Amino acid sequence: MSDRSLLDQYVRRILEARVYDVAVETPIHAAPLLSKRLGNTVWLKREDLQPVYSFKCRGAYNRMAQLSEEQLARGVICASAGNHAQGMALGAKHLGIRAVIVMPRTTPEIKVRAVRNHGARVVLHGDAFDDALLHARELEEKEGLTFVHPYDDPDVIAGQGTVGMEILRQHGGPLDAIFIPVGGGGLAAGVAAWVKYLRPDVRIVGVEPEDAACLKVAMEKGRREVLKEVGLFADGVAVKQIGKENFRVLKHYCDEVITANTDEICAAIKDTFEDTRAVTEPAGALALAGLKNWVAKHGAEGKALIAIQSGANVNFDRLRHISERAELGEQREAILAVTIPERPGAFRQFCQAIGKRAVTEFNYRYNDPQQANIFVGVQTRSGGADLLPLLEALRDKGYPVEDMTGNEMAKLHIRHMVGGPSPRNDLAELLFRVEFPERPGALMAFLLALGGRWNISLFHYRNHGAAYGRVLVGFHVRAGEQSALRADLKQIPYPMVDESDNPAYQRFLA
After folding, report:
1. 142 is catalytic
2. Confidence at residue 1, expressed as pLDDT on a 0 to 100 scale
3. 203-209: strand order across its sheet
4. Which of 56, 111, 216, 411 is catalytic?
5. Residue range 193-198: average pLDDT?
6. Span 263-292, mean pLDDT?
7. Fold classified for 416-508
8. Domain extents for the chain?
9. Which residue out of 54, 80, 310, 457 is catalytically annotated?
10. Closest CA to 320 of 269, 361, 359
């Protein structure tokens, strides 16, 4: 199939897509504060205003609307951790058909409750999406249901493509680029197909979390690859492999893929709130985070840019974590490890040394009669342009200082537990950062998995309202036992990072 015939096929499907029985045409809102700051004109396509607070109802309903009467009579099934599930449940309710939604047991209660409120049957199975998907396929066969894929299906792609149709109809002026969040690629493929057919001059930029960049890898290698691990912060786009049909479109019509990290996504959530008073989920702000990175990368000025604000299904509990990281993502806060003299008045002198910048955080515990290691947050100008001069000024004044702003362990754990080293100088200590499925009893299951052989010397756990819990755990080991400990930890089926050499640990806890 030629490139043009592929576009013809999808444009026809998009024109015929049945989405407005359940979806609404969402507006494009200007982002004046962000536009002024970036020196470009920025708009947000507000898919968070859908009845299920996400664009997913478009593709899910369009797929179900294409089913035969026999298939509709038997019902539909899907595996989803959230937004696709809600879109399916809403569509099935409108059609008056049976819907079974298989969700991981780690799915936040707000999403489970939303699906049930639309009348769908929820089956909780497994700790991750892959477990739920396997069980959904088993139920599909056993109960004669029709499976509706969340992204890798032409009808789903066409349904999501109506977002692109609305963008070009609503925005008739100059348009340089559209930024689209990418998980499995349904939204990106649909929008790209429509826009490139009518406006091939408009740049299509896919945006992924830097720790779940399956499209970026596929574009670089020219083929789809399965990522070994994906980050879970932006759970709506935490996909290990781009869809097959989606990549068939995107390899031709996605001009560029750009990534954003957790802090940058949090900053974009704050930007969205300041311009629209809407609170998005992490995946919902991903496109805007990518837009900001793209502007910085290319030095863009005076461009007309649209970011698709794809969803707002966020647990209220997560807002604490998001607000903590937003200033770091905007580079308006720096986290520093500084050594100051242990004497009265030393902190006052340090504050004088940093000038008029506000201290946003200060963690300290007495440990040494000569010097103190402090963990301090300092307000900086947007973009962090004044951070390097600050570091140089502090060093000139005799303060040993280390920038911890990019240190994930320091931001997730150390800032909440600065307390000094272990008193057991006769034993070595090894430190690990772990992620495990977040559900009732999961923390106890993790502790039981560690067994009784090893003595835990340090433990920090903080629930961020996400699907996965994060733990920092230390172990005391005797000489010659380090290899045995690492071998035992490999048997625990959770992502784990050895942080024993992390400078934040060495300064504050070692």
Report:
1. no
2. 53
3. 28-30, 41-46, 304-309, 177-181, 203-209, 256-260
4. 56
5. 97
6. 95
7. Biosynthetic Threonine Deaminase; domain 3 (3.40.1020)
8. 3-55+154-325, 56-147, 331-406, 416-508
9. 310
10. 269
